[in-house]
Design a protein that fits this description.
Helix content of chain B: 55-70%
Number of strands of chain A: 10
Distance between the termini of chain A: 32 Å
Shape of chain A: globular
Structural class of chain A: alpha/beta
CATH superfamily of the largest domain in chain B: ABC transporter involved in vitamin B12 uptake, BtuC
Number of strands of chain B: 5
CATH class of the largest domain in chain B: Mainly Alpha
CATH superfamily of chain A: P-loop containing nucleotide triphosphate hydrolases
CATH topology of the largest domain in chain B: ABC transporter involved in vitamin B12 uptake, BtuC
Oligomer: heterodimer
Largest interface: A-B, 34 and 26 residues
Number of domains of chain B: 2
Strand order of the largest sheet of chain A: 6-7-8-3-9-10
Number of domains of chain A: 1
CATH class of chain A: Alpha Beta
Distance between the termini of chain B: 62 Å
Largest sheet of chain A: 6 strands, mixed
Strand content of chain B: 5-15%
Number of helices of chain B: 13
CATH architecture of chain A: 3-Layer(aba) Sandwich
CATH topology of chain A: Rossmann fold
Radius of gyration of chain B: 26 Å
């Protein structure tokens, strides 16, 4: 795994929102084909971290490199597929296929119609998430889990090498979480790296190569998910942190 | 109908109305998607300052209003992108300042509010051939990006952060949208008027969203509705001898009101009955004295239940059995 090239590298990333430090000195990396979970409780800064890694939230300090290029000069956005939290978009009037087609824009040029390759990629992405039969429906008539699959299809339509998902399992029932797990397993098998923000390991846990646990804006753990057993997966993480920090001597400075 | 076409001023007025009806809903679709429905109204207020300035300096109103309104639009967008809580108050000050400055300047120019009112509610007789040429050019300036960049603008308006991760120049597109809206507002001041132009940007879009499914279909449908009400309102105001803006907006709201039941009918036809798994029979409970006849149009929600259809009725399900209903 270490021989694989680095697709995302964060070094000393520090973010303040409204004068309050949200992330402090975050350093970690994601390699090609790897599945990394960002875990942590409410307010631990995990969503802010992925958003700052994509340049959506300004950094106070630190550097981010995507595919070996500094974020500021990065222009190869077709290699990245972002699945934001479901609540952020105002897509209510749009059809499923229209939403997914927006995921091809990094491949397209202004004023030119979509090429056959663009249409084919949109169709493939819809089929991959099992929503091809709903392509003509409004997004607003779908269930939460189905909407999540559409947003994943939008990211897959760009045929990315790095898939970034922000809490894809939030508000999604267990049956649909299993569907998402199968989807991500297929992407990983195709060589796509996956970075996923999770509130709890849930159905996606078995896919994860590495878990990065955030606590109060710092990395409290970076290693196999199994090492966190008992502190995170059981849902007792709100109480288990202090004990856990002492176990991972040196990773946390209080 | 041939009568009004014989007047050159009506020919110009109808052409101006046609262009306005085409453009206002086109840019309005993006404004509505971005949930900024009242932006056009605010920009109309800013344009009033431009008209006042033109009256004061003796310039042609449309070019001056375009410049002032575009400048105001850029200020509005920069305030929004800075994204502080004061943006709301800043907008209000900008908008009402525009209205007050316009009235003040036209008063100083000796024109009074009477001269302004033809720009506030539209005036058919005042469209000159020079105006029409300018309106035509600006219409092309607005239509080329609103249609040519539709996928990009749709992405920016519906999910700005995702658009940024597609490498789109989101800030540029956002400024472009408000600038095009500003141009549209000033274009419409002779036909719909500055106080009512926002209605032509929003109401046809709302009607189109009831009538058709999908963003691009709504864009096209809104433009059709816009052209119909703008030309219809301009022609109607000739016979009714009223300000065209009022009639255009009333017609647009009429179309919206009609689109409401249409969307309900379309929605019912598209609604697929949910399916319940068939469970083993649990006895045979006959509904006592149920004179109501369930059917496709009775309004009770149908539910597929095994080999038959139940109807939801006050918290329980009715299934037709011979000449009576069973409780399921």
């Amino acid at each position: 795994m270490t021989a694989a090239p680095v697709v995302l590298a964060a070094d000393d990333v520090t973010v303040e929102l409204g004068g309050l430090p949200v992330l402090r000195g975050i350093t970690f990396s994601v390699h090609a084909g790897e599945a990394v979970a960002l875990l942590g409780g409410n307010g631990s800064g995990k969503s802010t971290l992925v958003r700052s890694l994509l340049g959506l939230v300004p950094r106070q300090r630190g550097t981010v490199e995507l595919f070996g290029r500094p974020l500021a000069g990065f222009g190869d956005w077709a290699r990245i597929g972002y699945v934001p939290q479901r609540s952020t978009a105002s897509l209510s009037g749009a059809k499923v296929r229209e939403v997914v087609a927006a995921g091809r824009l990094a491949h397209r040029r202004p004023f030119l119609p979509p090429r056959p390759a663009d249409r084919a990629a949109v169709t493939r992405a819809l089929e991959a998430v099992g929503m091809a039969d709903r392509a003509g429906d409004r997004l607003s008539v779908l269930s939460g889990g189905q909407q999540q699959r559409v947003l994943i299809a939008r990211a897959l339509a760009g045929e990315p090498e790095l898939l970034v998902l922000d809490e894809p399992t939030a508000g999604v029932d267990l049956a649909h979480q299993e569907v998402l797990a199968t989807l991500l397993r297929d992407s990983l098998r195709a060589g796509t790296a996956v970075m996923v923000v999770l509130h709890e390991a849930g159905a996606l846990g078995p896919l994860v190569d590495r878990a990065v646990l955030l606590s109060e804006g710092r990395i409290a753990h970076d290693g196999p998910l199994g090492d966190l057993a008992g502190t995170f997966e059981t849902g007792g993480h709100e109480h288990g942190h202090d004990h856990h920090h002492r176990l991972l001597d040196g990773t946390v400075e209080r | 109908m041939t009568e009004i076409l014989s007047y050159p001023f009506m020919q110009r007025a109808l052409l101006a109305a046609l262009l306005t009806g085409l453009i206002a809903p086109a840019i309005g679709t993006y404004i509505v998607q971005r949930r900024l429905s009242l932006l056009g109204d605010g920009l109309g207020h800013v344009a009033i300052a431009g008209v006042g300035l033109a009256l004061l300096t003796g310039q042609a109103p449309i070019p001056v209003a375009v410049v002032v309104c575009v400048a105001g639009a850029i200020v509005v967008e920069v305030l929004r992108q800075r994204g502080k809580a004061t943006g709301d108050v800043g907008l209000a000050i900008l908008f009402y300042g525009g209205l007050a400055a316009g009235v003040l300047m036209s008063g100083i120019a000796g024109a009074g509010t009477g001269a302004l009112s033809q720009y506030l509610f539209g005036s058919l007789t005042t469209v000159t051939s020079g105006d029409l040429r300018l309106v035509g050019i600006l219409a092309v300036v607005v239509l080329v990006p609103t249609l040519g960049l539709a996928p990009q603008l749709f992405a920016v308006c519906s999910d700005e952060e995702f658009a940024r991760t597609q490498g789109l120049p989101v800030r540029f597109y956002n400024v472009a949208i408000v600038v095009l809206a500003a141009v549209t507002v000033t274009l419409a001041m002779r036909t719909v008027g500055l106080l009512l132009v926002s209605a032509l940007m929003v109401v046809p879009v709302a009607a189109a969203q009831n009538l058709v499914r999908g963003f691009y279909a709504a864009l096209a449908c809104a433009m059709v509705v816009g052209v119909l009400v703008a030309v219809g309102g301009a022609a109607g105001s000739f016979y009714a001898d009223t300000a065209p803006g009022a009639l255009i907006v009333v017609l647009a709201i009429g179309v919206f009101a009609l689109s409401w039941p249409v969307s309900a009918v379309l929605g019912r036809r598209r609604r697929v009955a949910p399916v319940l798994p068939d469970s083993p029979a649990t006895g045979h409970v006959v509904t006592e004295g149920h004179p109501h006849q369930h059917g496709d149009r009775c309004g009770h929600q149908p539910v597929r239940h095994g080999d038959h259809t139940d109807f939801l009725h006050e918290g329980h399900r009715h299934a037709l059995h011979a000449d009576h209903y069973d409780e399921h």
